[in-house]
Structures are given as structure tokens and as C-alpha cells.
Amino acid sequence: MTGKTPKSRARGRGRGRGRGRGLQREEAVDPSPSSHPGAMETSDLTVQLEGVTLLPPPTRFQKLLESSCLSEPDEQSQDRDFILSQDFFCTPDYITPDAPQITSCLEFDKENVCPKSPEKSTVARSKRFKRGLSPGDPQLTNLASQYEPMEIQLDASSKDGLDQLLSSRCDPQKKSHSYVSQTAVALRCRVLPPPCIKNPYINATSSLHVDAFCDRRSKLSGFSPSVGGDGLSRYRTDFHELEQIGYGNFSRVFKVLKRIDGCLYAVKQSIKQLHNETERKKALMEVQALAALGFHENIVAYHTSWFENERLYIQMELCDHSLTITKNHVTKCTEVLEMLYQIAKALNFIHDRGIAHLDVKPDNIYAKNSRYKLGDFGCATLMDRSLGVEEGDARYLPHEMLNEQCEYLDKVDIFSLGAAMYEILIGTPLPKSGPKFLSLREGKISLLPGYPVQFQNLLKAMMDPDPVRRPSAREIIEHPIFDKLFSKSQSMSKQ
Ligand SMILES: Nc1ncnc2c1ncn2[C@@H]1O[C@H](COP(=O)(O)OP(=O)(O)OP(=O)(O)O)[C@@H](O)[C@H]1O
Ligand SMILES: [Mg+2]
Questions:
Q1: 354 lines ligand 1 (CB under 6 A)
Q2: What is the three-state SS of 260-301?
Q3: Rounded distance from Cα 35 to ligand 1 centre (Å)
Q4: Which of 377, 392, 410, 444 has the highest Cβ tally under 10 A?
Q5: Ligand 2 center to residue 270 CA distance, Å?
Q6: Of 288, 102, 78, which Cα lies nearest the Cα of 183?
Q7: 322 three-state secondary structure
Q8: Over the stretch 306-353, which tens digit does the pLDDT of each residue have?
Q9: Is 300 touching ligand 1 by the criterion CB < 6 Å?
Q10: Which one is catalytic: 79, 359, 376, 410?
């Protein structure tokens, strides 16, 4: 970002608007211009902008303002309103680009104009063009000459499209050089969308999979890992980051405020840059699974995702916290039953759609308004094994998965859910290895005094060494133990 402090940015924006309006009021009181309208504006501008000092000699930019005002008396007041707005000089912080090279190629007259507002300068230039200048105007040529073209490397696939795009505007002699203005690059980013990718979790026969974009897919490589090539960070443009709320082996998760709708979300960001296509494809499996699944009240809701700076960003529903075991952890039996029931419903939903999660554990179960939600689909795969299998956290995996002899991927999730609930009940993290680790995989779980035997038997069945004998997610949610739980909660709500 720029070197501006947030405070200075906020002040700049707030005052700018106020000053613009203030000037209009002053002019309404005394509309008579002085003999030299340009000089009058310069002094007004100095007063209004306080900290921004206009030093002699006048800049080319000022000259442009003055001559424009002299040549167009009827548009004078409109132009002033526009130019004297502080917004003209300062880019709002959320659209200040991260990429420094763009700033350097657009900076001009650092002393008089807020130097870190390249995007606004570009916009302002086009507005001036509409209001008074024609393409052949020497003033415009003068101003444009200050903008150095930037040399960029073009890959073979994008070059064709870009050449077509620019053919009507480029000098044929210059075409042989790869000099392209920044505006053209930004334009290219808008006209050439990223490729469409097939979602492996959606049935191939589905009507959604008419291959409308197959030719585009084959021509363009990658998943546009550098969205933001026009210098804007989508993350910074769309969201205001509030705090980091979690991290895992692969990602950091932030609580963010979405600027356009004012709602809070969680945005998960990959820690490592995903340099090659294989890495990016693998990371995308998570969002593809979430998108293919759609909405379920016990699955963390997925909103959107994108690549930026070679990292994958996933915008999700914000939850309160995960069920990670902490010190002084106490959980009531009814709460654990509720968790088991709700996550079994999530598993039933995904298993019905042929997807296995393969990383069910307390860290990946989130609580929100006393509802429990399954998240982190980073290891999700198809149960028919047509996609690769990547195992999750070994502490919660059954022996058949660790021995890579796994036929029933849905039953892996059942074991993991049983192990996760067991861990929450005993209140201490499960072992990563050793004799205790092995005995748990042999179905030897110690008795839990104070908890109903029926419940303990259910957990034992879920962690059975034989995957076939483990109950399915549907069998779990239909277990009679939940009848008691719900009849109790119903009678409590009637009271
Ligand atoms: N939607 C969310 N709302 C609130 N907190 C979240 C959300 N998503 C993730 N978190 C927090 O961030 C942590 C890390 O997220 P996540 O498990 O998705 O990352 P990961 O790198 O894939 O983890 P792992 O190491 O398990 O593979 C979670 O344990 C949780 O505490
Ligand atoms: Mg996780």
C-alpha cells in the first residue's frame, strides 16, 4: 500500500468533500470573477486545501486548468466543482493500488498534487477530455507525454487477443515493439476473463456442463493467478480486514467487512504462493467441493473465491469459533450430542452427493449461534475415488486410511467424527502416535463415567476397526438417542 497513514487518508477524504461544497457556497455569495480568473482559483485552491501548497511557477497541470477555464467560460463553474473536490487529488484508501510500479509511471509534479492517486488521475484525465479537450488538442498531448509507457512481457496466448484489441489504436510501426500502456493492460484484464474450469464434483451429465468455453479454456493457460494485474487488490478493494481469526497448515483466516454490503465474512487465504498450475488446481478442489454442495445449515456457507498474487482467497460465512480443544474445556453431554447430530447431518448431505470430507476434526467444526457447521473442505474428494485421496489429520483417521487400503471413504468420515466427539468429551487432545493411538484404532475406547451407555456404544460403533460395521451418517441421525434429546428440548421450549 501507500506510505500514507490511515489517519491521514481518512482526514483527506472527509475534508475533501466538505471543501468542495464550501467553495460552491462562497461563489454563490460573490459570483463576480476577478480580472484574472485563473489567479483567483489558485488562491482559493491554496486556502481550501490547507496542507497542499501550490508553489510557483505554475505546473503544467495548473496551466491546463487555467487555460481550460479561460477558453470555456460557461463550463467554468462545473469544472471548478469537479477539480476542487479533494476526491480528485486523493484516491480513497481502498482503491490505492498495491503495485508500486504503476504509481511510479503515473506520478507527476509531486509537490502540488497528491502523488499516490494514479487511478484517480486516470479517471480525471478522461473526465477533462469529455468536458473540453479534443483528441488533437495540444494540451492533451502535453499532458499525455508525461505518462511513460511501460514495457510488459506478454505470453503467447494473451498476445493475440491484446494485438487485436489494440490494433485499431496502435501505430503500425510501434506494433512490433511490446510497448503497451498501463490503461491497455487494465483494459485487457477486463475484456479477457479468466478461463472456465470444469467442476469435478458436479455430475458430468448435468446440463450445467455444456462445454461452452472449451476453446477458451484450451487457449488460455492457468487460472489468472494475478487478478489485480491492473494494480488493484480485489481483497483490499472489496473488503476491510478486521483481524486474523484462525490459521491452519495451509491457510490464514481473516474476519473482514465487505465494503459493498456492510456484512462480516471470513476470508481464507492460502499461506504459500501457488506457483504452478498443479498447486492451484489442488487448492481449487476445496472451493469446487463447496460450490458443488450448495447450501446446508450445517456446512459453512461458501460465497466466492479468486486468485490474487498467486494465492487463493475464499470468502465464507463467518462463524464464532471452532471446537478446538482448549484448556479448562468443559462440555455437557447434551451439547456433544447436539454436535454429533448436526455434523452427522452435514456428513449425510455430502455423502449423498458422493463427496467425502476426509478431515473431520474439532478444528474444522465451527459454532455459530448454537449451530454447528462443518468447514475446511481442503481434503474433500469423490467417494468413487475418481479424484486423488489426500488424507487429513492422522489423529482422527482410521487404520485403513493410514494403511492406504481404504474402500469406504464415507466410513473414514464416520470414524473421524466419532474420534472428534470422543476428544471433546475427554477434553484432552488425541495422541498422534504411540500405544494409545493404536488402541483407539482397535476400537478400545475407555469408559466415560457419567455419560449414557447408549451414547458411549454409539461412539464405539463409529470407531469400529471394521469400516463396514460403522454406522452410516443416516443411521447416526436416526439413532434413538436423539429422540430423547429432541423430545427433551421440545418439552423445554413448550414450558
Ligand atoms: N468460516 C470461518 N469462520 C470462523 N473461523 C474460521 C472459518 N474458517 C476457518 N476458521 C478458523 O481458521 C482456522 C483455520 O481454517 P482452516 O481449517 O480452513 O485452514 P487450513 O489451513 O485448511 O487448516 P488445516 O491445517 O486443518 O488444513 C480454523 O480452525 C478456524 O479456527
Ligand atoms: Mg483446518
A1: no
A2: CCCCEEEEEEECCCCCCHHHHHHHHHHHHHHHHHCCCCCECC
A3: 67
A4: 377
A5: 12
A6: 102
A7: strand
A8: 999 999 999 999 999 999 887 667 678 899 999 999 999 999 999 999
A9: yes
A10: 359
- Output the CA–CA distances (angstroms, integers) from residue 250 to 31, 282, 283, 308, 379, in the order listed: 63, 12, 10, 16, 12
Q: Which amino acid is at 85?
A: S
Give the ligand 1 atom nearest the CA of 322.
Answer: 31
- What element of type H or E holds 493? helix 481-494
Half-sphere exposure (Cβ direction) of 420: Cα atoms closer than 13 Å: 29
Query: Which residue's CA is the nearest one to ligand 1's atom 30?
Result: 246
Is the Cβ atom of 251 under 6 angstroms away from ligand 1? yes
From the list 359, 351, 380, 193, the residue with the least C-alpha distance to 283 is 380
Please report the atom of ligand 1 found closest to the CA of residue 378: 22
For 208-266, how does the pLDDT look when each residue is reduced to its tens digit (9 = 90+)? 444 433 333 333 334 444 455 566 899 999 999 999 999 999 999 999 999 999 999 99
The grid coordinates listed for 240 are 476491510
Q: Is 359 a catalytic residue?
A: yes
List the one residue out of 206, 385, 372, 199 whose CA is nearest residue 289.
199
Question: How far apart are the C-alpha atoms of 266 and 243, rounded to whole Å?
Answer: 10
What are φ and ψ of residue 267, in 5° steps? -120, 120
Annotated binding residues: 268
Beta bridge partners of 151: 179
